[in-house]
Amino acid sequence: MNFRSRDFLTAHSREILDFYLRAGRDERGGYFQNYFDDGRVFSPGDKHLVSSCRMTFNFYQAHQFLEARNEEERAQWLEWAEHGLAYLRETHKRADAPGYVWTFKDYQPTDLRQYCYGYAFLILAFASSVSAGEESAREDLYAAWELMEKHFWQPQQGLYADEISADWSQVSAYRGQNANMHACEAMIAAYEATSDSRFLSRAIALAEKVVLELGGKSDGLVWEHFTQDLDIDWDYNKDDPKNLYKPWGFQPGHQTEWTKLLLMLARHSDLPWLTAKARELFDRAMEAAWDDRHGGLFYGFALDQSICDDDKYFWVQAESFAAAALLGEATGEEGYWRWYERLWEYSWAHFVDHDHGAWYRILNADNSKVTDKKSEAGAKCDYHSLNACLETLRVLRALSV
């Protein structure tokens, strides 16, 4: 298999989308978000803001950047994207107060707390809509940005707060890199959609804060959790290391995700540290977390470099092969393309479902399956795997490969 082939990446991206197109449209609004491996839907009325945004983003990205089999397929991707956009506007967006509903259970709102993580993905979805030509989404993008700036942005710290109560009155003292990392991603997309330099400036500021300043407190790697005063919280979720959005330990997938974001920023900035730091984060993640016995990257490692969570997650492998491709482009070094090939060979053998399509979410250390649930609301919708392919296609086009 030629994993560096544009034809391969195009075909695989279409197959990921096909999995969701078969049964993913909810005529009551938005998309179904919970699937067994074979594509059967469970808990149809359980929805999560993050998955609603990511699936909308997936279809807009496909419409804009993926070669379709025919014009009918390309039109279908756009129509599905618009269906997701309408759900964000009409159902997730609160009618009684500013903000968005975080989760639904059986189609009923269950969590009205406001999360920076959610706003990052709202901006990502709205930016992708603007980039695809939906000018009306520009208003949604700026409205979400204004809420982030008014309520989440902490100007004295240069970072976004993580969580605010439903009535916007109580700001959590927790500070986390994960929401700020995805805010950086969203700001890059917003800048590319609007050419508004404020978004690029904020993306660079977030990268400098998290990767350079805060990373300097943890030996150059990105730690996840901080106090309100931006001191490292070494114990946060130590008793809950598999927490969905806030796991304990160094996350190799977040080191390589930052690699990807730094190199995406380097397309718009000539700051000399971007590529050097991107290399360091990737190299150290591979050294600490690659499983020499069974292949693939482990989920987490501790301060002494021992593995603290030996599960394998799809998104860690996907973000890492995209990062390797970007490093291959940025440095011209074949060694990064060898990592790209190694990550793909592992993922193709163990994570890609060759019978039903898309990727499995999680595997044990020996690559055995953990669950027959392929995707769950808030946890997975193949946003990482699809967009890692699309980002790699962008690299290969730039290299004229």
Write the layout of secondary structure elements.
Layout: H1 6-23, E1 35-36, E2 47-48, H2 49-65, H3 71-92, E3 103-105, E4 108-111, E5 114-115, H4 116-131, H5 137-152, E6 153-154, E7 159-160, E8 163-164, E9 175-176, H6 177-194, H7 197-214, E10 225-226, H8 252-265, H9 273-289, E11 300-301, E12 307-309, E13 312-313, H10 314-331, H11 334-350, E14 362-363, E15 373-375, H12 383-398
Antiparallel strand pairs: 1-15, 2-3, 3-4, 5-8, 6-7, 9-10, 11-12, 13-14
Helix pairs in contact: 1-12, 2-3, 2-4, 2-12, 3-4, 4-5, 4-6, 6-7, 6-8, 7-8, 8-9, 8-10, 9-10, 10-11, 10-12
Notes on the structure:
The chain is mainly α and 401 residues long. It has a single domain (6-398), classed as Glycosyltransferase. Helix content is 52%, strand content 9%. The protein is built from 12 helices and 15 strands. The strands form 7 sheets. It has a 3-stranded antiparallel beta sheet. A two-stranded antiparallel ribbon has the order 1-15. The longest helix has 22 residues, at 71-92. It starts with 5 loop residues before the first helix and ends with a helix. The mean pLDDT is 98.
